[in-house]
Design brief:
- The complex is a heterodimer of chains A (107) and B (533).
- Chain A has 107 residues and is mainly α.
- Helix content of chain A is 31%, strand content 4%.
- Chain B is 35% helix and 13% strand.
- The chains are: A mainly alpha (107), B alpha/beta (533).
- At the A-B interface, helix 1 and helix 2 of A face helix 9, helix 10, helix 11, helix 12 and helix 13 of B.
- Chain A: It is an enzyme of class 6 (ligase).
């Protein structure tokens, strides 16, 4: 069994960054699966990669002839803004309401 | 045979001849749904009911009244002698990862369970503009994260119509189950690693993953933005071609939708395969996966009956005049899943940051001290395990200190996967293939509960489909036989960028040549029960 790459401290840091809050059973399952997945990911390290192999951020090339032209930067009002605003969990007088936003004083 | 069992192109003909109405077609589908689908997926389903195990459970939201209004409108146009769209009166289901204005658009997640879309996704809008009738939204793995449909927050989750104790595959499991069970002739799915082709293979239907950018992603709730492809699911190749015709093409709302004209997918459908070069690769006849206990890789041949189905298909195509090219090397196929574990997670984590309980969707009802606590509680309660797993992995492998080791490296491996296909399809190269013929999946449909929970093994269900997503190329899965348990086996054709017309033509040639094969007479278990009742 390979060593655990994501230990409890690293995992706790990731959970904080991800804005999650996990119970113990979830945390145990997720940390175990992350380490299993990293085991699979490590196979990538065995691949000989020449220094000149570039990254591919999407498979199909986008030469200019198949890129859609940029549209004019015109303001186009959405017809039913209420339908969008009504999706927010809490709204008052057209404003989305959230709990207190914590402030941090930068030093 | 009921109306709902007919194909889209047969129904279209009957409608235009005045022999059936759109409402009659719709009612036939609704009746089939009422008889075989059982209760729809729900967040709080309560205890399992005895009859749950005998039903398909494809749907989350049935929009019967909306559909009736659309069908009546088609019939009025028909009666008035007005022109009809190419899919007029044809019912279809929509994977619930697409926004449809005024309908719940849930992504099969608690965090979007109460979200009612304020606009309609382009592929759905195009289906409706072509006259097709949306029956409702069907189940999927939560946010499409899975290969069995078992990660949905909406339960009961779909079952495989061919054998009800098996998974339908995923993530478009509700789509393929609804088509296989005769609930609708067409369904709109998405494919990020195989999520159309794998469940199509498991459910014995046709599934097309178009070239990345061939079909607009506008209104699709995003998973892996460089990989996601909306596409058709149908019971035969002609119907898949009809549907792709309707949904493909440039879209001013999606800057990644290629600005290329859409060819006539039906025009060349019956032209056969004479003279076409179709390849077989040994790299698609074995699977490589890690043993979690030992941390080492095992390589196994794919099951003989799946390999045999592919070879039989090659023989059929050779008899029709295709040239079969053996031993095409695709050496980077095995790295598709490890690279996908990195790339898709980074993209998923990025896309999931928007769910925060502020703008739409679920917000925790618990009292909170501040905004940050609201975020944490909302996301913990709203997301299931699979989205959480993807967020955490995506953040880890893209962290500044690990990015070169993981994310950048995976994107470079993606280049190698793309090069495998470029070399195979290069018209001036050694192989000069028009298409590659492979198995779609390393197994047939596995039992419910057999794999779910093991996120590594589940991901390897996509090993033979994910390379096409990395490369962006199109693929089609079609039925090619049954295994010893009577479960469907799928074969896959992969081709160069924007070669959908050719892939459909090859698939149709195989379909026509095997029309009378005994395995084509077999029917899903759920329809056998129906016939016997």
């Amino acid at each position: 069994m390979p060593a655990e790459e994501i230990d409890r401290d690293t995992f706790a840091h990731l959970v904080h960054l991800a804005a999650l809050e996990l119970d113990e059973a979830q945390a145990d399952y997720l940390r175990r699966e992350l380490n299993h997945q990293l085991g699979a990911i490590h196979e990538l390290e065995a691949i000989p990669l020449d220094a000149d192999v570039p990254i591919t951020s999407h498979g199909v090339p986008y030469p200019p002839e198949i890129c859609p032209p940029l549209r004019a930067d015109d303001w186009q009002p959405f017809p039913n803004t209420a339908d969008i605003l009504n999706q927010a969990p809490q709204v008052e007088e057209g404003y989305v309401v959230v709990p207190d936003i914590p402030h941090t004083t930068l030093e | 045979m009921e109306l709902c069992d007919l194909s889209a192109h047969e129904l279209s003909l009957l409608l235009r001849q005045g022999r059936v109405s759109a409402v009659e077609i719709l009612e036939s589908c609704l009746q089939r749904i009422a008889r075989v689908d059982g209760r729809p997926g729900a967040l709080e389903p309560g205890d399992p009911l005895p009859e749950d195990a005998e039903r398909v459970h494809a749907f989350i939201t049935l929009t019967a009244e909306r559909a009736r209004a659309q069908a009546e409108a088609v019939d009025r146009r028909l009666a008035a002698g007005e022109a009809l769209g190419p899919l007029a009166g044809i019912p279809f289901t929509v994977k619930d990862i697409f926004c449809v204005q005024g309908t719940p658009s849930t992504a099969a997640s608690r965090i979007l369970a109460n979200f009612v879309a304020p606009y309609t996704a382009t592929p759905v809008a195009r289906m409706e503009a072509a006259g097709a009738i949306m029956l409702g939204k069907v189940n999927l793995d939560e946010f499409t994260y899975g290969s069995s449909n078992e990660s949905s927050a909406f339960r009961p989750t779909p079952r495989n119509p061919w054998k009800l104790d098996r998974v339908p595959g995923g993530s478009s499991g509700g789509s393929t189950a609804s088509v296989a069970a005769g609930e609708a002739p067409l369904s709109l799915g998405t494919d990020t690693a195989g999520s159309i082709r794998q469940p199509a293979a498991f459910c014995g239907v046709v599934g097309v993953k178009p070239t990345y950018g061939r079909v607009s992603r506008y209104g699709l709730i995003a998973f892996g933005s460089s990989l996601d492809c909306p596409g058709p699911i149908a019971r035969n190749v002609t119907d898949a071609a009809l549907m792709l015709q309707a949904i493909a093409g440039p879209d001013p709302h999606d800057s990644t939708a290629a600005n290329l004209p859409v060819p006539d997918y039906l025009a060349a459908l019956e032209e056969g395969v004479k003279g076409l070069r179709i390849g077989l690769s040994p790299d698609y006849f074995r699977i490589t996966f890690p043993d979690p206990e030992r941390g080492e890789y095992d390589q196994q041949p794919i099951p003989a009956e799946i390999a045999d189905a592919v070879r039989r298909a090659a023989d059929v195509l050779a008899d029709l005049g295709a040239e079969i090219i053996e031993d095409v090397p695709m050496p980077n196929t095995r790295y598709g899943i490890p690279a996908y574990f990195v790339i898709s997670r980074v993209e998923a984590a990025s896309n999931l940051h928007r769910y925060d309980g502020v703008k739409y969707g679920y917000r925790t009802p618990q009292p909170v001290q501040d905004l940050h606590e609201m975020y944490r509680k909302t996301r913990n309660e709203g997301f299931g395990l699979q989205p959480k797993l993807r967020i955490l992995m995506g953040m880890y492998v893209s962290a500044a200190q690990y990015s070169a080791q993981y994310y950048q490296r995976a994107l470079r491996v993606r280049t190698l996967i793309r090069r495998d296909f470029e070399q195979a399809f290069d018209p001036h190269g050694k192989y000069r293939l028009h298409a590659l013929l492979t198995p779609t999946t390393p197994t047939t449909a596995f039992p419910l509960g057999a794999v779910y929970g093991d996120s590594v093994l589940m991901q390897y269900a996509d090993q033979l489909t994910v390379p096409a997503n990395h490369a962006g190329i199109p693929g089609i899965s079609i039925p090619a036989g049954l295994d010893h348990e009577g479960l469907p086996i799928g074969i896959q054709f992969l081709g160069p960028d924007f070669s959908e017309a050719l892939l459909l033509r090859i698939a149709r040639a195989f379909e026509r040549a095997t029309e009378d094969a005994p395995w084509r007479q077999a029917r899903p278990e759920v329809l056998q029960h129906l016939a016997a009742s």
